[in-house]
Specification:
Blueprint: E1 8-9, E2 28-35, E3 38-45, H1 49-67, H2 75-80, E4 87-88, H3 91-106, H4 116-122, H5 134-141, E5 150-152, E6 155-157, H6 170-184, E7 189-194, E8 197-202, E9 210-216, E10 219-229, E11 233-238, E12 243-245, E13 251-253, E14 256-257, E15 262-263, E16 268-275, H7 278-291, H8 293-302, E17 307-312, E18 317-320, E19 327-329, E20 335-338
Parallel strand pairs: 18-20
Antiparallel strand pairs: 1-9, 2-3, 3-7, 4-6, 5-6, 7-8, 8-11, 9-10, 10-19, 11-16, 12-13, 14-15, 16-17, 17-18
Helix pairs in contact: 1-6, 3-7, 6-7, 7-8
The structure holds adenosine monophosphate and magnesium ion (MG).
Magnesium ion binds at residues 168, 237, 282, 285-286.
């Protein structure tokens, strides 16, 4: 289970406002659920809010089945058990695979969904954690190569022996799917938190921006700050979300560096990505975490249709220039604003 504590502060009463004279824009409906191995919350305002939230819950449950690595009927399980044969999958799976492939390319291979067998041997998929032997990791890495996954229409081929996991992207995609439902129900104000992946639609009903808390990776029950957003996804990958402490006293976390199969330790403990597309932000947050501080900044400069909030392992906060004005610090962490153009 993800140990995430991102607070979503809407600043609005959580109770349904079903008044007799009923200003429909004020009707709020919420749902809490546990899905995709994490706690989720959905909140929507508008006269169709209840129907929208009910539909969103059903969609989340269906996508959970589609993307599961354990459910025998899931698309991912079918791909992983196909032994090199072609498999027909849903449009949802195709879309997530395409995002993963694009991000694999953009991140120089940092995002690699075929790492799944390595994640499993660390116990990150089951909770039966242990530090594997170096030989075992090296052997499993032989079969890790996202470029060998082919997607042609709705037909997917993965070489025999290779297995994939969409955990780095699936929740962001699911958030986008929920936001499409909100749009179909004419909801102009909604906020969801899928295990700390926050996605917003419009603004708060009073027209002000949503305020999203950013977890302190060094003290995960605290916030380092908040960020004000409208119509944006705010998605975080952190080393505090899922980890274990080895017999050697070291912390081992769930985001692996494909370069060596060990937890990525390239200068960052938390990466928050703010952008329009949840799937892309989710893929990015994992990829940038692996890329590390310098590469993440270069990645943003190359392809900056997103903003980021980075926390380095030595306790510095880096904000990209497009988000700095919307960030409110809640602690004294030293902070630097990263500019689009390289500093001299
Ligand atoms: P996120 O919380 O979005 O950063 O996703 C982390 C999850 O992605 C992990 O729990 C693994 O299931 C998976 N994962 C870990 N490392 C990688 C990687 N380098 N590339 C792709 N997926 C990964
Ligand atoms: Mg991610």
């Amino acid at each position: 289970m993800k140990n995430i504590f991102i607070m979503v502060m809407s600043g609005i009463c959580m109770m349904p406002l079903l008044t007799a004279c009923g200003n429909s824009a004020d009707t709020v409906h919420t749902a809490d659920l546990f899905a995709m191995d994490t706690y989720m919350n959905i909140k929507a305002y508008g006269k169709d809010a209840e129907a929208a939230v009910t539909e969103a819950e059903a969609r989340i449950r269906a996508l959970e089945q589609t993307f599961s690595v354990t459910n025998d009927a899931s698309d991912i399980r079918k791909i992983n058990q196909a032994d090199g044969q072609p498999v027909t999958v849903s449009a949802d799976t195709v879309s997530v695979l395409q995002t993963a492939q694009e991000m694999h390319h953009e991140s120089g291979g940092a995002l690699r969904i075929s790492l799944y067998p390595v994640l499993r041997t660390w116990g990150f998929t089951t909770g039966a954690y242990s530090v594997p032997e170096a030989d075992e990791i090296a052997e499993l890495l032989q079969n890790v190569d996202d470029t060998k996954i082919s997607v042609d229409g709705q037909t997917v081929r993965c070489p025999a022996g290779m297995e994939i996991d969409l955990g780095a992207v699936a929740k962001g995609y699911t958030g986008d799917a929920v936001m499409e439902i909100m749009q179909a129900h004419h909801i102009s104000s909604a906020i969801i938190s899928l295990g700390g992946n926050v996605q917003t639609r419009g603004s708060k009903p009073d027209g002000s921006a949503w305020t999203v808390g950013i977890t302190d990776p060094f003290a995960p029950d605290m916030l380092i700050g908040t960020v004000s957003v409208r119509d944006k996804a705010v998605i975080t990958s952190g080393n505090y979300e899922r980890y274990f402490t080895g017999e050697d006293g070291r912390r081992y976390w769930h985001i692996l560096d494909p370069a060596d199969g060990y937890p990525a330790d390239n200068g960052l403990v938390s990466v928050t990505v703010i952008g329009s597309c949840g799937a892309e932000c989710d893929a990015l947050s994992t990829a940038l975490f692996v890329e590390g501080t310098e590469q993440a900044v270069q990645h943003w400069r190359r392809n900056g249709d997103f903003e980021m909030i980075l926390v380095t392992s030595d306790g510095e906060l880096l904000l990209t220039e497009g988000i700095a004005a919307d960030y409110n610090a809640k602690n004294e962490m030293p902070c630097r604003v990263v500019q689009r153009n390289e500093e001299p």
